User: Fold this.
Amino acid sequence: MRTYEADWVTEIRKKASASINSLPLPRGEFIDIMKFIKSPKEIPKIEKIEDAPKEVLDLFEKMGISEEERKMFFGLSVQANDNVIYKKVRDELAKKQIIIEAMDVALKKYDWLKEYFFNLVKYDENKLTAYHAANWKNGVFVWAKGKYDLPIHAYFMLLSPLYSQMEHTVVIAEPHSKIFLVEGCTAPLFIRESVHIGINEIYIKDNAELTLTKLQNWPKHVHTRPISKIVLGNNSKLHLINVIYGGGASTVEYPEIEIRGDNSKVSVESIVFTKSSKVKLGATVYVRGKQSSVVLPSKAIASEASSILIEDEIKAFSKCKGHISCDGILLDDKSEIESVPALFTKHKDAELSHEASIGRLNEEALFYLMSRGLDEETARAVLIKGFVEPVLKHLPFQYRIEINKLLEIAAQGSM
Amino acid sequence: MLLKVENLTVRHNQKDLVEQANLEINKGEIKALIGPNGSGKSSLAYAIAGRPDYKVIEGNIFYNGKSINNTTASERAKLGIYLMFQSAPHIDGVRVRDVVSSIASALNRDPAKMVGKVEKAMGFFNMDSQFLSRYFNKGFSGGEKKKLDFSLLEAMDVKLAILDEPDSGLDMDSIKLMADRIKSMQKKGIAFLIISHQYKLFDYLDIDSVYIMKDKRIVKEAGTDILKQVEEIGYANI
Assistant:
């Protein structure tokens, strides 16, 4: 299958493969990740939807997920290129100068991707980047040259099957372009692998605007290690909304964002709702251009003996404004949340600040709702939904509904 | 007998805040509960409404002849008990409309209709319908919180309303309005236990009797004359 791959791509695979052993573990790694990578969980292969575990089917039912979508989750869907809807939407987007291709197809088509593919993320940064570089498969190339306001979603599922372990995505937002991408989905993914490593390399050029929503709902046996690097030029905007639901077995995610130009805006909003999981999360934003602004708000909810560490960081090298905030709620006595914001400046006119608050659900509000007739589970769900609302309200309606349903189910489960 | 509190002792944070309290209310009655600050009035109200951290360690709360000691706050609400909070909490990120809809769903009522009723009740207090789209009590003045909580009371099928200082923070016109609403609910058979420090609201109403609480205990049940006495010389001789 890789016979058709360009030589330079194969070359990266070879070099990466040879370097794995000599490289360090990535930041925040706390398990024997290389051992897990090589030991997929024994899950029977799904031949038809009915073979899926009952709890997964029940959840799909509760969330109202369509037959077609269910097939995709289990990898039963037809090949993307044969899919009529996919073709139609792709043509529609092409008219707006938004080009979307499967990553391997794009690499064959556009030789100049050499300057973008494994450019922001170096294959030899650590063991995981190298393992990914040697073994990546699937992924999406998005090349935006025009403007398109609606969220672009389904193509990701088709081009980058959710059961893929090592997808590689490159997004290039050319000057004056504008796009809204939605990656992942709110339904639980059905994958065998014990470790998932997706890499995103994102280029937002002058006067371009990208909204990226990441929805992550990993099964309990999966350790996920998403790697993202994003660069911005002048007058550009990034709005990243990261929703981590459940957290899998563990999640370690430290995206790096670099504002290279002036007058740019970055906002990274996170909702993390863990269940028996260990999550380490933190965006680092380097501000090099002048007059830029950065806001990093996060909302963390820890349940079922899980732990969440949030380590957002702003590094200012020029005049800018930056703010980090973290609100956390513990749903039980066995969970923990830690917020470690970091601010660094080399410029006297950088205005940076942070705030954090961590506690339990407001007992007074809980009693208020119960004294109006809500049972305890429903009252908790109402408060949790209210807690994440400031971030959630930035998501498209459809996803908001899906996430609210998940929160309700979770609030009932966490009693 | 709608409510009968018998020998009730209530503990909160390892302290007894109510001791051996007795109190009775019939359908359609209005009873006042007065007493110095910190005498245990709000604690008694919480205990009747079923607040989990206000534990009944002795005695009984009978509602329609049955002990409700072991029922949850939510079950008591469904039985028709409504506590109007001295200071209702705000709920971030949840709009008034959505709180009301959740309550309606919990009570198997039609959400849109209940929102309509709350909207109408708020209208009596000159609160416009934009309040429905605001986060619950967030940034509301003290008076607006009371008006919203009272409007919710009107929209629900309540049989016993316990009002904990419903008049504090309200202007005179609003107190008069609230009194009128209470009277019309009273006519429908709703019973009230009203806690207050200022007697303007009581003046507008036909109070059946006044309970006086001092130092965790209900020390006296008296006629409304006692209100005047307390206003003039305080609680010292009671």
Q: What stands out?
A: Residues 363-415 of chain A form one domain. Chain A has two domains: 2-362, 363-415.
